Every structure is written in structure tokens, then in C-alpha cells.
Amino acid sequence: MGTPRQLGGRARVKNALGGGPSGTIGKNWNRLPRRVRRFLPLVIIVLLAVLYPSITDTLRGLAVIGDFFPQVSSMVIILVFTMMAVGLNIVVGYAGLLDLGYVAFYAAGAYMSGWFASGQFEQVSFHLGSVGIAPEATGIHVSLWLVLIMAGVFTAFIGILIGLPTLRLRGDYLAIVTLGFGEIIPQFVRNGDNIRGFDLTHGTFGINPIDSPGFGEGLNGSLGLPLSFQSSFDREKLFYFTILALLLITVFCSVRLRDSRLGRAWIAIREDETAAAAMGIPLMQTKTWSYALGAFFGGIAGAFYASFKSGAFPSEFFFNISVFLLCMVILGGMGSVWGVIAGGVVLGWLNIEGLAVIGDRFNDAAGTNIEITKYQFGIYGLIIVLMMLFRPVGLIPEGRRRRELEEGVHDEPLYEARG
Amino acid sequence: MIGLFFVLLILLWLAVNFVKDPTEFFSVFLIGLTTGAVYGLVALGYTLVYGILQLINFAHGDVFALCGLFASTIILSLFDLSGESAAIVIVGGLAGALIIVMVFGSVLNATIEFLAYRRMRKAPRLAALITAIGMSFIVQNVGLAVYGVGFRSAPDLIPRSSAFSIGGVSYGWNKLAIVLITIPVLVGLTYLVTSTRQGKAMRATAQDPDAAAMMGIDVNRTISFTFVLAGALAGAAGLLFLLQFNMRYDTGFELGLIAFTAAVLGGIGNLSGAVLGALLIGFIQAFNEGLTWNAPGSDWTRSIVFGILIAILVFRPEGLLGERTPEGA
What we know:
By secondary structure, chain A is an all-alpha fold.
């Protein structure tokens, strides 16, 4: 009689409600301490990510599925875009402000690398902790670690500049204004090679080469850390571990922000602006913070990516990137950090390698000759529409957001009749 | 105050340009009129849909581009028109093409509404906007799949010979035809919205869908009709644009944003506002690209247009002719 009850009523009820995995594994899983349950999956994923470069060759050598594992250099790009998506999630997911111009922050970050870690300004010669650069080289060469922080701060500042006049606008107007800025900033860098005779951005050619990070002579000698990523034999692996670390920091900050006073204020604004204001949340200030912090991570990712590619080119900053990032956030689930990471990795992979591989497979199987990569943005558009129509909460939704969308507390006054 | 000062500065700049080279000024002015007319047709599509659904129909610009590409097929392959065809054939062919393309645009736009936007009626406004962005990419890629990456253009169907001239500058028939086609379309549209039963239903739905439904208006049908109308305008604009310029699958993105800016400038939801805004934007673009004395040039067109968009939204979101509403839009 009492057997099931002895097994733990709560776990059983939870299983019945669909709260956890079922079966014996599920039972044992639920017996684990809460802390372990919470952090074990995370630890496993991080371990896999750390080990990935050492097992890439093995995985890629596998029959049939080998092609589906991206190269380490592709992984760097995937993680860069994932980091941007996590940054964008702060604005779109937490605060509920639709930003269609996130590419502007990416561009700002990339050009910070271009200005402070390359030979762009040949009138001066300034070196500060840079590695792998001849001491007599002209231009500003600041250590890239410092540039990353500078880029974050600069981009956050731009976010505030854009935000201050525009954040009082209603949702869809704000989206269009951010789109406008997202178009103006790339055009500015494209045309910025002759501002009263001063070459600020080197026009359509972009700025290259850009310095790479490194630890310099001292740390190389004492700790064996790499001198400069660029000259290292393991260049791609080094960049990979760096972006992995940056992504982890971003995710950590993002989660902590969400649970902070500020994060709760964002969510309150997202759910009901008027009620939030009535509770004493300063709307403008809170929204501006979301802009600044979202931009901060985008700037760092942009600066890092410019260093990885060793260049900042204006042709890369266009509206489609903003939509691509937005698609990552929507696919994963607005507001859900884990969802956005999953969405970012999946779409990033599709963008870099996945679509080409799938397209080749499809063409081989069906005997057709369709260039599927040509239609990548159409595919992202399709994903966006399908997600919005059939699963607006995303693949891995955040519980709170789901309740919002299901109950429809968002954006509409309660008293309005619905027909 | 600052705005006024800025406008005065621009007027001064125009005056100096006019005095320096009147011929150039007039020719640029006429170019602006022509592009403004095409922008107007597209801007009306944005403003109609926004008026009734409060949705920025992002896909509208791409519907326009797809219509233009479709028009190139009609003109070149179906009717096989060329500059040497007899005048009566050209006029008849163009009229036929115009009707076919307008129907195509209507069907396309109504299909988009039926498949995607109709299900978003009760969703948050931003969800609908995001759907529209996705739709825009899909329509663009349909154009890419069917027509490839190359530019399409139409042969010189309407002679470039002078129709009339101001200040020593002649205005070609090919440009005049665009304005001549635009005006009746606008008059017809205004009549439809202000004086017919269907137009009344549209205005009622725009004001309050629930109350309109209670008064026996079929709200869904009215919204579909609005999309049909907007699609027809996009179709007409696509054909007219094709007669003047090259276009390809992604032409609609930028032009759509410019047209949207025009609609916002005039006061979104306001029909005459959209046309006024479009003409202004057409002139601004033409003056910027065409005048020689201290003009920023075509490199900066996009920045200027978006700068106007931002300034209008921030300082006067109701636009030039719009009315202030409690929501501030």
C-alpha cells in the first residue's frame, strides 16, 4: 500500500505533471541534490566545449556524420555570434525592446579594434602592451585585452547615445529607429575615409591587419602562456578558448543581471510598462541600462571578431546580421539564456557550415543542384515566421515568458474586449 | 526652434543652388517629382496597412520588388514589347501589364496576410512586426530564387522625347507617364476610402475593430481588402519603377524603408500625408544626389533619409499631417 508513497510523493507528482524526465533515470535524477541537478548539465556542456578542439579531428573523421561537426575556426565564429545573441537577449528578451540595429554595436566594436590595435593612424606611433608588433611600427597598438574592454565601454556609450532620445518611443517605432541607426552607422564607416581630409575608417577597404591578443614576453617566459595568438601554431585553438571564456563570462553576467534588481525591473517593464512605472521603476533609466549592457557585450564580441579575422570591413555590417541575431534569440526563446545559446549555436553552425553540408547531402540524394546557402536569409525568415506562428516562446522557453505569452498580459490593456 | 532653423538652412542651400545653376535645379526637381511619385505609391501601401492594423508591414517593399520583377516577365516574355512596337501596342500592352501586375500584387499581399498576419491578431504588436520581418526575407528570397541575382530592366517603351519644358529643361514623356499614371490611382484611392461603403468599413475598422465588428462589419474581410489594395498599389509602383530603373530581388528592401520613412514623415495612417511625405523625400533624395554645390552626395542618401526618420519619430511622431493621439503616434 505505502510503497509508492515511500518512493517520494513529490517526485512522483512532479513526474505526473511533466516536470522532469520519466522512468528510472528520471527517478534517480530527481533524487540528486538540487545543486547537482542544476549545475551538472552545465558542467558537462562546458567540459565538452573545452574538449572540443582536441576531438574535432576524430569527430570530423567519422563516417556519414563527420561533416556535421564544425571546424575549430568555424566554432570561433559560431561562438562570437552566440555571444552577440546573448547580448541582444538582454535588450529584446529581458527588457522587451525590439532592437533591429544590433549590427551597429558589432560595427562599433570592430572599429574600436581597428582604431586602437592596428596601423590605421599612421601619423602617430603609440604602443601599450601590444604583442607581436615591431616596436617601430606606426599606428596605435594597444594590448587587445584592453581594447576589448574599451570596445565594450565605447559601444555601451553608443548604446546610451542611441537610447536616450529614442527609448521613450513606443515598441514598433523604437524598432524602426534602431534599424535606422543600424543603417546609418555602417554607411558612416563606409564613407568615413575622408572627413575633412582625415581618414577615420579607411572607407570600403576597411581596416586591416588588426593585431591579435597575446600574453607577451613576461608571461610567456614564466607561465608558458602564448606570446601572441597570431604567431602561434595553435592560433585557432587559442582564439577558440578565448571566445569560450568570453561567452561564459557573458552568460554569467547575463544570468546574474536577470536575477538582479535591474533585471527584475526589466522584466516588469516588459510585462507592463505602466504598472512598472507605477511601482516606482524609472523607465528611461532602466531601459537605457538594458541598451548599454546589451551593447557592451556586442561591442566586445565585435572587437574580438575583428581581431580574429584581422580586419574590420564595412561590407559585413548590414541589416541581415541584425535579423540573423534576432532569429537566434527568437528560435531559442526570448529571455531564456540557455535557449538563446542553443539557438545561437544551431543557427551559427547553419550559417557557417551547416547549410552547405545539408545542401550537398540533399543534392547528392535528390540529384538536384540547388545552392541552398544562397537562400540562407530566406530560411532564417521562414524560421522566424514559423516560430512566431506556432511557438512564439521559442524552443527552450523561460517559464515566465511562456506564461506571459499564454495569458496574453503583454502590450494590451486588460479591459479591452476580445472577439 | 532648432527644427525651424534647420529648415531655413536647407531652404537657403536650395536657393543658392538655384541661383548658381537654374537649369540643373529644374532637372533635379523633375527627377525628384518622378521618384517621389513612385515612392508615394509604395508609401500608401504602408500607411493603409498601418492605419488599419498598426502593423509596419515590412514585407511591403519586397512585394513591390517582386511585382516589378514579375512586370519584367510580362513585358518582355508575355507581351514581347520593345521600343519599336507600334504605339497602340505599347499603350495597350502597358495597360494590360499594369492590370496583371496589380492583380498579382493584390493576390500576393492578401496571401501573406492570410497565411501569417491573420494569426497574429491577438499577439503582442512586436510579435506581428517580427513576423513581418520574417515575411520580408521570404518574399525577397522568392524573388532571388525565380529571378536570380541579376538586375532586370525594361526597354525604352515610352519615348524620352520632351513632353514640356520648364526653365529650359525638358521633361520626357517617359517620366511624365509615371506621374500621369500615379495621379488617377491616387484620386481613385481617395474616392474609395472616403466615399464608398467599403472605405467606410475600412475607416471604422481602423478606429476600433471591436466596435466595427459589433456594427456588422466583417473585420477580417475589411483587413484583407486593405491588403489587396496595398498590394495593387505595390504592383503599380513596381511596374512604374521598372520603366525607369534597374531592379533586382533586394531593391525592395531599401526602397521600402525609404517609402516607410515617407509615410512616417507625412503622418502614418494619413493618405495625403503619405503622398506629401513621398514627394518631399523624393525631392530631398534628388537634391542631395543631383545638386553640385555642397551636396552630400549619393553616398549619404541612406543616412539622410534615416536621419529624417529618426528626427521625425523622436520630435514629431504624428508626422507633418497626422493628429496627436494619446499613444503619441
